[in-house]
Amino acid sequence: MTVPGRPRRSCLAVPGSSTKMLGKAQGLPADQVFLDLEDAVAPLAKADARKNVVAALTEGDWAGKTRAVRVNDLTTQWTYRDVVDVVEGAGPHLDCVMLPKVRDASHVRWLDLTLGQIERALGLEEGRIGIEAQIENAAGLVHVDAIAGASPRLETIIFGPADFMASIGMRSLAVGGLIPGYPGDPYHYVLMRLLMAARTHDLQAIDGPFLQIRDVAGFREAATRSAALGFDGKWVLHPGQIEAANEVYAPSQEDYDHAELILDAYAYATSDAGGRAGAVLLGDEMIDEASRKMALVVSAKGRAAGM
Length: 307
Ligand code: GLV
Ligand code: MG
Hints:
single chain; 307 residues; alpha/beta; eight-stranded parallel barrel; two-stranded antiparallel sheet; 10 strands; 15% strand; globular; binds magnesium ion; metal-binding; magnesium
């Protein structure tokens, strides 16, 4: 299947406490930016970060980018003030609110109701601001199906590997890459689980960060694994990771061209002129209705990437 929505091949983390980064991010070729009020911002800097984020959204030039703000999680004292200040201050300039460490559907419903109240109070279009839910603990993973169906505002399910690894007691400090001593991909189950929940509700699935920012080859390998499963994009923590993400989560030119060929050949074969065939040979490849659906996925991802 294809999941329409905003492009999110590269989702750039921008600390809300850094006015320098908030300025620089505007000129970078990331599909999405998320201005962070959570873990990249120290507790004593949270209040100022809210002001910086509101100013950056209202005064900055984010043309062509999806604009999200990550608020603090619902076990803290900061979440409600984050949401109220950011949406009251910059609602019309904001596409999504990202909620971290979601444990169950009630967290998403709280945000949905709160956004609705602020939209009504301000006379903003109701339901326009979307929600992105980060799954980064065992409870969130166990409840992910209910979370993914908790609000029509939901646009993405995001994996948060660092917090997730800490939450389940995973004995590694290497976030995003393979784990020495484990003979396989330790994230395979989690990624597939998130992807199934996301696709059940027509949401995008986004892979989390890769912390070794100078190891672009390692980033590319990790991104290639989740892109192969069907993930739509990945977080980037540094400008040096953006190009790799934009490339990896778009199909190769060869695959895109082949998909277009399948679509054309199948459309002809099933028509009156083509003899109303259900399955036909394209070169040495047997194609049928399922091939058409697979080709549609590749074609849609390619078009979204401007191919
Ligand atoms: C991201 O928030 C993570 O915990 O990996
Ligand atoms: Mg986290």
